[in-house]
Amino acid sequence: MNILLEEYYRNDIHQSGFIERKASLNEESVWLCGIAQSGKTALIKNYLLSHKKSTYLYLDCRDIRLEIRKLNEILEPFCRENKIKILALDNYREEINLFDMGQIILSSEFQNPTDFEMLTLNLLDFEEFLAFEPKYDSTALNHFFLLGGFPAMQNVVLEDRPLYLQRTLSNALNEIELSLLIQATKMVTQKVSAYTLYERLKEERKISKDKLYACFRLMLDKRYLYGCEKFNHPSAIKKLYLCDIAIKHALTLQKHFGKVFENLIFLELIKHEIECYYDEGIDFYLPQRNQIILASAFANEHALFKKVEALEGFIIMYQVKEIVVVTMNLESTLSHPIARIELIPFSQWALGEE
């Protein structure tokens, strides 16, 4: 085991073509959380490369040569002997004992309660995605819809993208979790309970309700799936969203641009940490902004007016100041007696969110 640590310590780490993310590491110990292929390793390696080689030790805890019992015996003495100041445990496993030292960086899919600062690394939002684009022009938004937020997708050729994501997800998830995710891709933006998913999956495989419920909670905890609450009804069934729209393209042949578009808007809100809920006829209600957001890629003025009229009670009760209709490329302000209606193209809306 000492030989393996020496190998990791001696060998140079490589990180070419790193593009800055909104999340960054500083001198504090941190637990970095994010789903598979969200960019955790790239972020860690880029940070380490800004330090002198002899001051850090990087370990990938997925290495099957690591024997945890022996590692726990020698890791601390090894770090002390070599005067290591930064210990980075990528893909950290909880069986590995931690100890006091200058800085510890952990990464995993899970958010675990520790004394460490927690840093969540989301997939790319639209603004981050633009930094990965060769040039920003009218094609950038179309690329975002095709590629989604996985950073590596820019380097995967068109015909290999579905298989790349399928391999990524197959490696990261167990069989039941992957089946659950495939089922979820068919129910995006719908009100979906764990029981509904259980009813669907039990037709395909033998599975207990408790096992399915536990897997569903885990998928939410790891942020492969999201549930959006109904406003003022926390016990109501949540609307289901994927962590990335490219997953829908990779795991199902179903095509429904409207649902994908709504999912994309939800992800932008989540990544900007904006509190949001749904209600009947309302895609997203933002209470802190007194704002309703409707996802309507190809908005129709007459249909919008009818939709807003149906929301009159909600708008008056909660004193909604503005209705924002996020579109593909339409931009306009509509005069309506109930509330101001702003039609904003997705690219403008996403880049304008703070």
**Helix-strand pattern, N to C?**
HEHEHEEEHHHHHHEEHHEEEHHEEEH
Strand order of the main beta sheet, please?
Answer: 8-9-10-11-13-12
Spatial gap, N to C terminus = 48 Å
How many strands appear in the DSSP assignment?
A: 13
Low-confidence stretches: none
Biggest pleated-sheet summary: 6 strands, mixed
Radius of gyration: 23 Å
Number of helices: 14
Tell me the number of structural domains.
3
Give the % helix.
Answer: 25-40%
Estimated share of beta-strand residues: 15-25%
Describe the global form: globular
**Mean of residue pLDDT?**
93
Write the layout of secondary structure elements.
Layout: H1 2-10, E1 30-33, H2 40-48, E2 56-60, H3 68-81, E3 86-90, E4 103-108, E5 117-120, H4 126-132, H5 140-147, H6 161-172, H7 175-185, H8 194-201, H9 209-221, E6 225-228, E7 239-242, H10 245-251, H11 257-271, E8 277-279, E9 282-286, E10 291-295, H12 301-310, H13 312-317, E11 322-327, E12 332-334, E13 340-345, H14 346-352
Parallel strand pairs: 1-4, 1-5, 2-3, 3-4, 10-11, 11-13
Antiparallel strand pairs: 6-7, 8-9, 9-10, 12-13
